[in-house]
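Marked as duplicate of an earlier ticket. Keeping the data here for the record.
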Amino acid sequence: MREIIIEHFERGISATSAAEMAKLAEDSFPIADRVPETAGEAFDWHSWYSAWSGIAGADKAVLAPTHLMVEAADTFEATIPWEQLGQAAVLYALEGEPLAKAGPIRLYVPNGSSKCLNVKSIVKIKLVRRAAAGEQEEASYGFKNTFSAEELRMNK
C-alpha cells in the first residue's frame, strides 16, 4: 500500500490509501466520463471530501478549504482554488488494479483555469484555508525543488 498523507488546516495530519479513499467516496466511474480518451476507475473529489470531512471531524463544524494543494512523488506541486474542483476526479485504478504508474492517485481537474489538467503520483494532499480568499485565482503548479545543471552534475 502506497500511503497518501492528508494535511488539513484544522484537523492536522493523517494517512490513507487510494483504496480507502475510493471506498469512502463510494461511487466510482470510468474516468473517461469526465476526461475523454483516458482509461481507469475514478471517484468524485467532492464525494470523497464530504465523506472524509464527516468522519474526520464529525464532532465539530469546520470551515471549508479555500484551496487544494497536492504534492507528487517527483516534487511536482499544484495549488487549485476550491471553486475549480466541481468536476475534479481522482483516478485510483486501472483495469481493477491499483495504479502501477502515476499512482497511488492521479487528480484530474477538467474545466479549471490551469493548463495542467492533471497531477500524477500524488503522495500528499493539503486542504488549506487562506485568509484572503475573495477573488477566484488561477491554479498554480510547478516543481518544488529546482536544480542547476552544476548541481545535477555533482550528484551523479
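See parent ticket for discussion. Residues 45-56 form the longest helix (12 residues).
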